[in-house]
Structure formats: C-alpha cells, structure tokens
Specification:
This protein has one domain (8-345). It is built from 16 helices and no strands. Helix 6 packs antiparallel against helix 7 and helix 13 packs antiparallel against helix 16. It starts with 7 loop residues before the first helix and ends in a 5-residue tail after the last helix. The chain is mainly alpha-helical. It has helices spanning 8-14, 35-45, 53-79, 86-89, 91-96, 102-117, 121-135, 142-151, 155-179, 181-193, 201-207, 215-236, 243-257, 266-276, 283-307, 316-345.
C-alpha cells in the first residue's frame, strides 16, 4: 500500500542466506540471479549479526546500493556532464533504488560503455563480463559492439573482445556450473518457463482479453525481428554513433518485449538514456517518460495490494492501462533520441 517493497530482506530469509546457505545449493530454491549477486549476498550473510539480522542485511545492502548510486552519478557526469543531473533527480529512480540489486549490474555496464568509447577494449570486455554475470541483461550490448567493430573494419579486435568477455564470464560462472549446475540454471529456467508476468505488454494484453498462445515462440520471434531491425538501421547509417548513444535502444527492446517488467528496470534504462541524449530539447521528452515510469511504479503496488485482498487499490484494467502508458512514454522518448541520431548520421540524399 505504501509502494515501498524490497526483495532484499525477503530473499535473505527465503533463500536460506540467513543460515549462510550456499546460494546455488537447491534446484528449486536457489538465488534466482547470476553468480555475482548470489555470491555477494552470501558473503554479506557472514557479517550480519544474529540479532535483528533481517534489518542488518538490508542496511548493509542499502549502503552498497547508495555507494553504487553515487558512483553512477559521478560516472554519468564524466560521460555526459550536461545531462548527468537528471539521474539523481529522477523520481522513478529514487523510488526504485532499494527494490533489488540492479545497480550492481548498472555500474559495470556503464563502465563497459565508457571504456569501449574510450577505445580501452580489454577493460570494456572485462566490465561487460562482470555485468552479464550480475544481471545478464547487458548481454544484448554484444550486438552493437559487434556491428561497431565490423563497421570500423576491426574484426581482429572484435574476436579479442568476445574472447575476453567469454574468458571472464567463464571464470566467474564455470566453477558454479560444475559444482552447482541445477542451482545456477534456476535463473535461466525461471525466465524460460515464465508466462506473461507483471508489467509486460503481454500481461496487459491478457488483462484486456488477448490471450496469446505460444508466447515463448512469439516473444522470441518478435525480439529477433526487433534486434535485426535495429542492426539494419545501424548498418545503414552514414557515420557510426558511439556505443553510449546506442545502448539505450538495445535495453529498451529487451525490456519492452520481455515477459516481465519489474519497476526497478527503470534503473537500467535511465543512465543509458542520459548518455544517449545529445540535445537539450530531448529533456522534455525525458521527463514525460519519467512521469509515466512513476505512474507505473505507483500502479503496480496498488494493483498488487488489491489483488492480495486490500480494501482499496487499483483494478486490473487500470493497471493494464498504466503498463501501456509507461510503454508509450518510453517509446516517445526513444523516438526523439532515434530521430536525432538518424538526422546526424543518416546518409545524405543525392
């Protein structure tokens, strides 16, 4: 009812971390995240005092998340100084900071982009491997990375980049794969088996009576088509944008077509939106989008409250409408960004 849910203390108890249980021990109750989040929280569990342990576990995590938030703010100031102030002022960002551990992945994702555009490719590959091992969604950035290397005739550098990403991802993941495969695989199994879930366009369509069969195949097909369309658009541009300008669109495709949209996903999108912005006139579209994110943030908690028996809350139709409003807001902002990129980099008509 108060829109202040967090996964952090809930999973501390439910996944056995309160007893220092290895986070990937169980095929059915392991941490539903890649290794860095699981191992990081497992290590935190050893320094949590026995008395009031849930609160201590939450507070330690909050301190780490605040550190990530501050570091991201400074990194954005380095990458896009004229617009960096938008991140700490965005209300949907502030409202979502402590829902989950997403900022752990965002900081390394931004570092990967920063190092890539600075032509420090090995450092970028290592940062991206760490980010993928934290939340997995950054893997979609390999598509623009590959295209940018190809356009610049740097195929040898592309092979080196992919090698370093694979090497460091393997170094983090393979020990757990070999020793606790079922627990490690649970994250992927949950996402593969997931039906239309909260926040997704598919969930909204279900509420409105469009029950789509074969969702996994449909979702995969539409996603592949969208990524191919993005690749064709990028290849046809006359000059090459930076990875900072392009990353937002990949994560947007991923989150818009995904089978779930959790409110903290705004933490993935907002920093990438800021580094993609080139013009002051895009700021108004940014704030329109952020308002729609805040509408969704409030809507999901009120919908869940009513769904779980509260006297007051948001009915299903209102929640589905909030989903579509959010998608409309972020799509409008993406259109404004893409229009500017196309104007700046498209071939000159002859």
């Amino acid at each position: 009812m108060h829109a202040c849910y967090t996964d952090i203390p809930a999973l501390f108890g439910e996944r056995g971390l309160i007893d220092n249980t290895w986070p990937y021990l169980s095929a059915d109750n392991s941490m539903e995240y890649p290794p860095i989040i699981g191992l990081g929280n497992w290590l935190i569990s050893f320094v949590v005092p026995a008395e009031n342990s849930y609160r201590w576990f939450f507070d330690i995590n909050v301190l780490l998340l605040i550190g990530c938030f501050i570091a991201i703010s400074f990194l954005l100031r380095k990458m896009r100084p004229e617009h960096s102030y938008l991140f700490p002022l965005a209300p949907a960002v502030i409202a979502s900071l402590f829902i989950n551990w997403d900022l752990w992945a965002v900081i390394t994702l931004l570092l990967a982009i920063y190092y890539f555009d600075s032509k420090k490719y090995d450092a970028s590959a290592i940062a991206l491997a760490i980010s993928i091992s934290t939340k997995f969604f950054p893997i979609v950035l390999l598509l623009p990375v590959a295209i940018l290397f190809w356009r610049n005739h740097q195929l040898k550098q592309l092979r080196s980049y992919l090698f370093f990403v694979s090497l460091f991802w393997s170094a983090i993941n393979l020990p757990i794969i070999f020793t606790s495969f079922d627990g490690w695989w649970r994250f992927f199994r949950l996402n593969l088996d997931r039906g239309p879930d909260f926040g997704s366009i598919w969930f909204a369509l279900n509420i409105f009576g469009f029950n789509l069969s074969g969702l996994n195949n449909l979702y995969s097909l539409i996603s592949i088509v969208a990524f191919i369309g993005f690749a064709i658009w990028l290849i046809k541009l006359n000059t090459t944008p930076s990875l900072a300008q392009l990353s937002f669109f990949l994560i947007l495709i991923f989150t818009t077509l995904a089978k779930v949209y959790s409110p903290q996903y705004v933490l993935w999108l907002t920093p990438l939106a800021i580094i993609a912005m080139q013009q002051r006139k895009q700021i108004s579209a940014f704030w329109i989008w952020q308002i729609t994110e805040m509408i969704y943030h409030l809507a999901i908690w009120q919908y869940l409250a009513l769904d779980q028996g509260a006297e007051f809350g948001l009915p299903a139709g209102g929640y589905a409408l909030a989903i579509l409003i959010r998608i409309g807001g972020v799509s409008w902002f993406a259109y404004k960004l893409a229009s500017e990129i196309h104007r700046s980099h498209a071939p000159i008509s002859r």
